[in-house]
Structure formats: structure tokens, C-alpha cells
């Protein structure tokens, strides 16, 4: 088995594990309730997803840095944290309409737009902070 095949097998195994654990491990929403998405709203779903995704990227970078420095324990801890934030991003950030192919009405356009706007907020804040730091 090549390194690429091993990577995809591991990735698929992790994704399946996340999918199987998503609903049972949620702390904030009862995902079995039919109205949980209405209570959260599309913008907040996108925002939650964006925040968790950004935190996951931080831990991914931390894991790469730990690996480059030979810190095996730090690398494994960072990978665990990255996986947790990836799981949260997929659970907390499930909007009503997250794919353009799911748009069937004007209301769906609004949900899709609100989800995307919420998801990009953390990236915009990071860009602004970086620009402010560089401009100072």
C-alpha cells in the first residue's frame, strides 16, 4: 500500500468515526429535535463552523511544528485537538442549506448566504488582525 493510499484510508476511517459520533456527543443542541437548526439559525451555524475550523487549523499547525521539532507527544496531542475541533465544526456548524445544489427557494438562498457569511467571519477577523499588526 502506498503512502497516499494509507493516508486516504486513515482519513476515511477518521471521517467515518466523526460521522458516527456527531449526534451523540453534542453538548449544545439536541440534534434529534426537529427544530434545532431553526433555534441555531444559518448564520450562527456558519459562525460556529468557522470558529471551530479555525481552531482546528491552529492545532494542525501546532502538530506540524511539534513534528518538525521532534516532539511526538505534542504532535499527538495537537492531532487529537485538531480532530476534536473538526468534529465540532461538522456538528455545530450544520446549516440548513450548505450546498448550492440544495437551493430550491428564495428562503434557501437566504439560508445559504447567511451560512456562508457566518463561516467566513473568523477568517475576516484573522485577516484584519494580521493587517493591523503589519500596519502598526
Walk me through this protein's architecture.
With 136 residues, the chain is mainly alpha-helical. The protein has 5 helices and no strands. The radius of gyration is 17 Å and the shape is flat. Mean pLDDT is 78; it is low at 23-29.
Oligomer: single chain
Instruction: Quote the beta fraction.
Output: under 5%
List low-confidence stretches.
Answer: 23-29
Total helix count? 5
Overall structural class, as computed from helix and strand content, comes to mainly alpha
* Number of separate strands: 0
Mean pLDDT: 78
End-to-end C-alpha gap: 51 Å
Evaluate the radius of gyration: 17 Å
* H and E string: HHHHH
From the spread of the alpha carbons, the general shape counts as flat
Share of residues in helices: over 70%
Described by strand count, sense and barrel closure, the largest sheet is: none
Write a concise synopsis of the structure shown.
The protein is an all-alpha fold. Helices cover 75% and strands 0% of the residues.
Short key terms for the protein model shown above:
single chain; 136 residues; mainly alpha; 5 helices; 0% strand; flat
Write the layout of secondary structure elements.
Elements: H1 3-21, H2 36-40, H3 42-68, H4 72-92, H5 106-135
Helix pairs in contact: 3-4, 3-5
Amino acid at each position: 500500500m502506498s503512502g497516499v493510499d494509507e493516508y486516504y484510508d486513515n482519513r476515511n476511517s477518521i471521517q467515518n468515526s466523526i460521522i458516527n459520533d456527531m449526534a451523540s456527543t453534542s453538548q449544545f443542541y439536541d440534534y434529534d429535535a426537529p427544530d434545532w437548526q431553526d433555534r441555531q439559525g444559518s448564520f450562527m451555524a456558519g459562525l460556529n463552523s468557522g470558529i471551530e475550523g479555525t481552531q482546528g487549523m491552529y492545532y494542525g499547525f501546532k502538530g506540524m511544528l511539534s513534528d518538525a521539532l521532534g516532539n511526538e507527544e505534542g504532535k499527538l496531542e495537537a492531532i487529537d485537538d485538531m480532530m476534536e475541533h473538526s468534529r465540532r465544526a461538522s456538528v455545530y456548524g450544520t446549516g440548513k442549506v450548505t450546498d448550492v445544489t440544495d437551493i430550491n427557494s428564495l428562503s434557501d438562498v437566504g439560508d445559504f448566504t447567511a451560512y456562508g457569511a457566518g463561516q467566513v467571519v473568523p477568517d475576516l477577523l484573522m485577516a484584519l488582525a494580521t493587517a493591523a499588526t503589519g500596519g502598526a
